[in-house]
Amino acid sequence: MTTDQPHSSLAALLASGAPVTGHRPWPRCLVDRPAWQLASAQLAAGHWTLLGLWGEPDLVHLALLAEAEGTIGVLSLACPDQRYPSIGQTHPPALRLERALRDLSGLVPEGLPDRRPWLDHGSWPVSQPLAAAPGPPAPAAAPYPFLPVEGEGLHQIPVGPVHAGIIEPGHFRFTAHGETVVRLEERLGYVHKGIERLLAGADLAGAAKLAGRVSGDSVVAYGLAFAQAAEAALSLTVPPRAQRLRGLMAELERLANHFGDIGAICNDASFALMHAHCGMLRERVLRLAETCFGHRLMRDCVVPGGVAADLKGTGVQALRALLAEIEARFGPLIELYDNTASLLDRTVGTGILKPALARLYGAGGYVGRASGRGFDARKLPGYPPYDGLSFDVPVLDAGDVNARVWIRIREVQASLGLIEQLLAELPVGPIAAPLPAALAAGEGMALVEGFRGDVLVWLRLGADGRVLRCHLRDPSWFQWPLLEAVIEGNIVADFPLCNKSFNCSYSGHDL
Amino acid sequence: MRKHLLESLITPPVTEPAPAPDEAALAELARTVDGAARRRLGRSLAIRQVDAGSCNGCELEIHALSNPFYDLERFGLRFVASPRHADVLLVTGPVTWNMKAALERTYAATPEPKWVVAVGDCARDGGCFAGSYAIAGGVAAVLPVHLHICGCPPSPTQLLRALLALLTHPAHKLAQ
Ligand code: SF4
User: Is the link from the previous residue into A136 a cis peptide, with omega within 30 of 0?
Assistant: First the structure.
C-alpha cells in the first residue's frame, strides 16, 4: 500500500476517525459518510472482508478485516435520520445483514434495491423490536415475493419450512429445468427468537447462557466468543488452566460436529455404513465430554472469566484413551471413503464453490477452506490457547462436496494433535478469574473459530455490568448465500448433499 | 469395504440394553391420554420431528437416538418424513411466531389419533427465550401436548426413556 493513497489501509482509515475509548481489543471509530463509503468501495473491490454489520437506534456499525495487513476494526456511522449508505448495493455479502437490520432496528440502507423484509415475516406483535420506539406489527404478511425466474420449461419446487428430515426449518424455492436447478432462493428467519433483544438488560451470567444457546451445535464456540468479548470489555485475564480447558472443549466440539457431518454427508449419498461408524465416533466424543465436563454438549461450561467445570479426575486418562481409539478407527474410515467409487461419484465435482466467491463473501470454516480461503480465527487474530500451539489449517481449491469432506477429515486430524498438545501441558491453578466486584462500562469484541467458521460477538456493558447491546454474528450469514450459488446447474437430487456439506446453522443465522 | 463388513460380523453390537421407561412420563401420559387413543399406544409408532424454533441442540440429541448405541428402531419407533405418516409429533424449541403457522399446519396434516411430545426446556414454556417478542410460548401454547421431556437438551437416554413410556401400554400401567 502506498502512503499517497489516503486510507488505503484499514489501519489508516480507522486512525482518521474519532476513536471510541473503552473498546477492546480492536479499535472502534466514529466515521463520517465519506469514510463509510470508502470502506464500502474497499469491500466491493475485494480488498477487505466484511465481518459484520449491525446497528443501534441511531448508529450503524461495520466490522472489517483487512487480512493482508492483519487489521480488524469497527467503523460506526451516526444516522440520526435512521438512514445510512447501503454497503450491500455494491457488496452483496452485506445484503441480508442490511435487510435484517432494517427489520430489527428500522435503519434504512440508502440505495439497497431489495426492499423485502428478511427476518420479519409479519407475524410478530411488534415491528422494529430493537428500535428506540418499536412500531406496531407489520401489516398482515402478503405472500413473500420471490425473485422472478423466467424461461421456457421451468418449474418451481417449494420446500419447507418443515423439511423431511430431523433438521431446522427454512424455505427453499427451487426453479428447475427438468432435473437441473436453475436457481435456488432461500427464505430464512423461521427460528428467529429475538435473542438480541433478550440480551439487552441481561446480567452477565444470564447473557452468557443466552449467547450459548444461539446455535446448539456451537455451544462452546458461542460461549467462548461471548466470554472473550466480556473479558475484553472488563479487561479480565483468564487463568492459563482455564484457557487450556477452553481449548479442549472447543476441539471436542469440533470433533463431534465433524464426525457427525462426515457421516451425514455420506448418508445423503445413501452410504449408511459411514454414517453408522461416524455416528459411533460422535457418540464417544459426546460421552467423553460428559465424563470430562459434565455435559454432552458442554452446555454453560464456558463462562466469562474462565470455565464453570474443571476437568474431572479421570478426564486426562479418558481423553487419551479416546484419542487412541479415534486414531485406530478413523484411518480405516477415511480409506473406506476414499476407496468407494460410488460414493465419490456423488461427492466429486458436486456443488462447486468458486474460490473468488468464497473470498468475496469471506466464507469461513470448511466452506471457505475447501475453496482456497485459508482464514482461521485461531490463527488470525489468534487467541489463547492456540497462540502457543502448532497446528495446520488445511486448504483445498476444488470447492466441491468432496473437498468440504476432506477439509473436515484434515481438521479432525488437526484437532487430535491439538488435544494431545493441550493434555501434555495442563497447568494447575484456578479455572476462572473472579469478576471484578464493581463491574464497569466498556465494549468488547471477539472472533472465535467454531467448527463451522468464525463467530463474531460484539458487546457493550453498562456501568452496572449489565448488557446494553450485544450482537452475535454466525458464520452462516456468509455461507447461506453461497449455497444458492453452488447448487446452480446441479440436479435437484444433489441438493441434500450440497446442503449437508455446508451444514449452515438456521438458528445461528435467524437468532 | 469387505474388511468393515467382516469386522461387523465378528464383533458384538455396541447397541445397549433398553433403559426402563420413565416413571414421570408414564404418569403424565396416564393423565393426558385416554379412551380409545390409549388402546392404540403401545404399538409401533411413527414419529415426525418438528423444529418449531429450537437452537438445534435438541435435534442433535434426537439424531443420536438413531446411532448404533441407542438404535431407536429396534423398539418399533421410527422417524418418518411426512406428518401424514405420523402418529407422534416430536416438537422442539420455543414456538416462534414465524413457525407457529407451519407447526399448526403440520399438526393438521397428521391423521388422528395423534400425540404430541414436547422436547426440551424451551418446548415446555419457552425456556430462556420466554418473554421475547418473537416467541409464542412453549408448545402447549399452540398444540395439545401429551408428554413433556425436559433437559437442555435432554440426553438420548432421557429421550429414550420417555419415548419408551409411549410404548408401555398406559392402560396396563393404570391397572397396576
Ligand atoms: S431446550 Fe436447550 S437445546 Fe433444546 S432448543 Fe432449547 S436451548 Fe436448545
Answer: no
What is the ipTM score, two decimals?
0.95
Q: Pairing mode, if any, of strands A306-307 and A442-449?
A: unpaired
Q: What are the angstrom distances between the C-alpha of A465 and each of A202, A214, A231, A301?
A: 9, 22, 12, 21
**CA pair distance A129, A107, nearest whole angstrom:** 12
Searching chain B, which residue's CA lies closest to the CA of residue A136?
B133
Q: List phi, psi (to 5°) of A228.
A: -65, -40
pLDDT at B30: 81
Confidence category of residue B5, pLDDT binned at 50, 70, 90:
confident
A125 chain-B contacts, CB cut-off 8 A: 97, 133
Q: Which residues contact B117 (CB under 8 A, 6 or more apart)?
A: B88, B89, B90, B91, B145, B146, B147, B148, B149, B162, B163, B166
A25-59 CB burial, b ≥16 within 10 A, e <16: bbbbbebeeebbebbbebbbeebbbbbbbbbbbeb
How many C-beta atoms surround the C-beta of residue B111 within 10 A? Answer: 10
pLDDT per residue as tens digits for the range A266-290: 999 999 999 999 999 999 999 999 9
Task: Say what the pLDDT of residue A100 is.
Answer: 98
Residue B156's closest CA among A467, A290, A453? Answer: A290
- From B59, B152, B159, the mutation candidate for ligand 1 (largest count of ligand atoms within 8 A of CB) is B152
User: Hunting for cell 478407527 — which residue is that?
Assistant: A329
DSSP symbol at A379 = I
pTM assigned to the model: 0.96
Q: What integer pLDDT is reported at residue B174 of this predicted model? A: 40
- Is residue A81 within 8 Å of A35, Cβ to Cβ? no
Domains along chain A? 10-110 (3.30.460.80), 195-510 (1.10.645.10)
Q: Check B67 against A215: CB less than 8 A apart.
A: no
Residues A60/A101, Cβ–Cβ less than 8 Å:
yes
- CA–CA separation, A273 and B57 (whole Å): 24
